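[Discussion] Sanity-checking designs against the backbone

I'm trying to build intuition for which residues belong where. Below is a structure token string of 376 positions. I'd appreciate it if someone posts a full sequence so I can compare it with mine line by line.
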């Protein structure tokens, strides 16, 4: 089968939908098409490294693939040493962008296979695997009147997309009926990418502050506060919320950032109000594994058995030399789902234990409770 034929086969979004739950490249590969012929991937058209640990990549999406809704993420895959690794990145663009491009920002993580690979290798012309979009939280089609965005670190990207979309629609600013405020936290303001775009948003009526969580070093000339912080500093407090959005009690609140930031927001808002916060996650919020959990995990397809002392089934399988299919590693994309043939597993997000034989489990967020057989 030729590449143009394959291209026609996969050129419509509906085709992608019909291929769910597997990413399309799975099927492309099963047809014997090489990676370089894969018409469903994204092509890198521009790369920038604006701060010391972030790669900003602009991608051309294949025909028929829309950019995800503001706040949602694209699944990006790279092949490193013959193994496919996938992660999720939220485009920073406004929903109004119509040139078929999407811009993502990839922060380097120590030991992060994908982020390190893209930091060192990303260049125009590079091809990336593309899976299905995911997102627990997106900007609803009926825009909320008042919006408060709270983010930290890599959480800047979905918030940039939401804020840009709202500002572009004239949702805030002089004469508008809505209000949009955004608090973004970073160790140092100068480590934050997209500061120019944040200033543009400020001019468009978004009440935005970039808040440094560590005090600037007075001996470092680059360490002086950026005007965008406007004297806010340290971790989130109720005072910060009141400063940017004194009306926040009735606002729709979006959150994307680490657990410490979520805890701060919960303390500031109170548990009842925090329950309404729409939180997008970049990392799994797995709870601790109780003492006594763990057991021998038998991977029935590969015939490999290994003791798992209480890590996730995915990590246990990888430690045993297997390479199970996975994507987000945080319970969102379902790429890692496998049949638990027998035994009990704990969902580390909720702590619940399930024992029903023949059930599908997400192995990235499940750990064995006793001996388990899993179809891997
Ligand atoms: S890898 Fe995404 S749900 Fe497990």
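Best answer:
Here's mine. Compare freely.
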């Amino acid at each position: 089968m030729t590449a143009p034929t394959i291209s026609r086969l996969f050129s419509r979004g509906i085709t992608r939908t019909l291929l769910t739950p597997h990413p399309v490249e799975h099927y492309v590969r099963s047809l014997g098409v090489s990676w370089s012929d894969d018409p469903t991937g994204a092509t890198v058209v521009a790369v920038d490294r604006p701060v010391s640990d972030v790669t900003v990549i602009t991608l051309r999406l294949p025909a028929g693939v829309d950019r995800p809704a503001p706040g949602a993420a694209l699944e990006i895959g790279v092949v490193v040493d013959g193994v496919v690794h996938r992660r999720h990145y939220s485009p920073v663009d406004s929903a109004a962008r119509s040139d078929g491009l999407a811009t993502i920002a990839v922060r380097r993580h120590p030991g992060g296979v994908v982020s390190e690979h893209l930091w060192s290798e990303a260049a125009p012309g590079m091809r990336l695997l593309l899976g299905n979009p995911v997102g627990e939280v997106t900007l609803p089609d009926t825009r909320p009147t008042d919006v408060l965005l709270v983010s930290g670190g890599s959480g800047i990207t979905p918030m940039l997309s939401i804020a840009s979309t709202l500002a572009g629609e004239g949702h805030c600013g002089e004469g508008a009926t809505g209000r949009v405020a955004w608090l973004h936290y970073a160790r140092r303001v100068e480590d934050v990418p997209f500061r120019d775009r944040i200033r543009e948003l400020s001019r468009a009526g978004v009440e935005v502050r970039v808040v440094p969580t560590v005090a600037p070093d007075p001996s470092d000339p680059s360490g002086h506060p950026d005007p965008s912080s406007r004297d806010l500093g340290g971790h989130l407090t109720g005072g910060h919320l009141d400063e940017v959005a004194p009306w926040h009690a009735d606002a729709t609140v979006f959150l994307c950032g680490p657990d410490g930031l979520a805890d701060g927001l919960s303390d500031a808002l109170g548990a009842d109000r925090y329950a309404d916060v729409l939180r997008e996650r970049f990392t799994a919020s797995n709870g601790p594994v109780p003492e006594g959990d763990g057991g021998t995990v038998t991977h029935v397809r590969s015939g490999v058995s290994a003791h798992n002392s209480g890590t996730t089934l995915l990590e246990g399988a990888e430690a045993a030399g297997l390479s199970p299919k996975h994507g987000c590693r945080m319970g969102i994309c379902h790429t890692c789902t496998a049949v638990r043939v027998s035994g009990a597993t704990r969902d580390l997000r909720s702590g619940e234990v399930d024992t029903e034989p023949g059930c599908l489990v997400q192995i990235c967020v499940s750990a064995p409770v006793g001996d388990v057989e899993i179809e891997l």
